[in-house]
Amino acid sequence: MFSRNDASVELLRMYKSTNPSDIQSLSSENLKGNFAFQFTALELIISQDEILDKLNKKEKDDLENLSIEKYYLKQTLDGFGLFGSSSSLRITGKILEEENRFEKLTDNNLKTDIIKFLVSGTTYDTSILKQIVLMSK
Question: Residue 13 belongs to what H/E stretch?
Fold first, then answer.
């Protein structure tokens, strides 16, 4: 997938067509878990540097806004949890990092924690997620 020239654009197209609220129409916990897992997997793939580097500025801006929108929507739904919700903000954070927007942070500990999140893709610290949302505005 990473070697395809159109991988980034195709993944962005797929991401635009996914809707977190579709989880509500699923009848079993297994189906909901599978949906959340696949959604999160798509976001983790999109947040890879090899994918983001192939997007132009407008596509990255669209993706940043879309990932914030999906994050907020996931917050209102059962089934995603912290890990499933934070994957949306990993996309946002990776775009912000690429644009050096975290350089504005004066709290070096927070900056370090955000970078750790962007590398690992996981955090239990919701203040990191809130900061990414604030920095995207």
Answer: helix 7-17
Range of the domain at 49: 7-136
Cβ atoms of 86 and 122 within 8 Å: the answer is yes
CA angle, 93 then 98 then 102, to 5°: 60
The rounded distance, in Å, linking the Cα atoms of 4 and 11 is: 11
Q: Report pLDDT digits (tens) over 59-111.
A: 999 999 999 999 999 999 989 999 999 999 999 999 999 999 999 889 999 99
From CA 74, how far away is CA 131, in angstroms rounded? 17
Q: What is the total count of domains within the chain?
A: 1
- Is 118 within the bounds of a domain? yes
18 lies in a domain? yes
